[in-house]
Description:
The chain is an alpha+beta fold.
Amino acid sequence: xxxxxxxxxxxxxxxxxxxTLILFLIAMIALVGGMFGAGELTPRLGIDLAGGTTITLxxxxxxxxxxxxxxxxxxTAVGIIERRVNGLGVQEAEVQTQGSDNIIVxxxxxxxxxxAREQVGTTAQLYFRQVLTxxxxxxxxxxxxxxxxxxxxxxSESPSPSPSKSDKPESADPPAxxxxxxxxxxxxxxxxxxxxxDATPTPSGSGKPDSxxxxxxxxxxxxxxxPATEKLQADFVALDCTxxxxxxxxxxxxxxxxxxxxxxxxxxxxxxxxxxPAEVGGKDVDDANATINQQxxxxxxxxxxxxxxxxxxxxxxxxxxxxxAPQNQFAIVLDGEVVSAPSVRQTLSANAEISGNFTQESxxxxxxxxxxxxxxxxxxxxxxxxxxxxxxxxxLHAGLIAGAIGLALVIIYLVLYYRGLAxxxxxxxxxxxxxxxxxxxxxxPGIGFALNLPAVCGAIVAIGITADSFIVYFERIRDEIxxxxxxxxxxxxxxxxxxxxxxVSDFVSFLAAAVLFTVTVGKVQGFAFTLGLTxxxxxxxxxxxxxPIMTLVARTKFFxxxxxxxxxxxxxxxxxPPLRRSPRRLSAPTDPKEA
Length: 595
């Protein structure tokens, strides 16, 4: 008779349950400790629980682009909006298409959420245009220019909408009436700004305008007088930049290749411009970042141009550096609004910076928009729906009540049917709940996970999945006891069969959660993610907590004795008489070699 092999544990052997249990407890303590160490004691809540804003954007084609609203452009716009919002650190901001021409943006309440709302629909069409004419934005503060007046780069009598303080004509040297000096150049967010460069000026540029190289009369800064120019002048006179509706309509029909009107704000005072054709576009900007000027301590926005953009930028600044104010100003136009109109004093290329009275938020806003590019479409806000924190709290309260009711029903069922075994199930459920809570809390700052109402539903469903695993194991143990075995061998012999059933059941649940997460969008993914997470934790808890606990309690008198309240009473289970091994009969060997 062959001797049993040493070092190989028999099937169903108890192993070392104490060591396994200690490792599980260490992992659980580490998760809880990480939660406290990260300073995150509660999971982040989604927009439907914490409150927030839902914005519906409707796409519309730009002039000359009748078929621009298509699937490709819509998906591109979704990606750009997502990068803008994520660049601000907003968590669980959902951006998705609805129908063929709508985009839904969900912004949860919290840090930077208002800032993100201001950026989601910003088209970010960026152009660098020459300033041709400048005047006060309020028509009440200006005088109408002569009907035949047109701005000219070489003319020293640029029309001024502002009343002159003197009856003498302006000379060619001082700035035109109404035009700001270099230190008074304005920005759309009430900022003063100068355009600077890291690149070395071209050798021909001295950094100052050369009065000997005044522009020839044959090179006007604006198109010759024609009906379109006269209409532009008339629209300029009538433009009221203090009217928000009038400002919003400026960029709708503006074409990069044609002069246009624009408005800009300076310390709360609106100014209006006639701008020349676009010389440099937003696509020529390679990168833009908000940073602090080490010399002045002020926030600035640094821009890096592409190779082609650098050449364009050098050409236009070379031309502008020879002009008189205001035609030496370079308007940076974003979505039809002048955000900066710096004066150019020398030829620039490669890199540039916008400096002025930026706050950190306004500098990051501009840098974020320039970095992530322009939207391929123009969007209009259709609806803006705000969910208050009070309403979100009510929904969370209702979800918690539903979860508590479901948990109470499971516990009542376990106590009535399994009696003492229900204690093991409840402890296992608590261990699963602690790990689920800690992981969800840590996933907030980790991957931006936020708990929404469908995710709460997924956690409630997981209660039943976890309880089902306990029931499978308990029933296998009872089956072994019905066969006449005592508790200790019954626990170990029941585990291999219960383990297979639990793994198959949890695999099906996890597969369903993975498919649901893949094919759905929005809040339904929260349900799928939570369901998949809790399914994985169910396997961990049953294998590394419930099984070792069951092995240990099988050694106690209360359970091994089969009391009526243990849930393992052989009489109540209808157990067969104890299995007895029949004595082995030793027969004489028939083969001489076996003797």
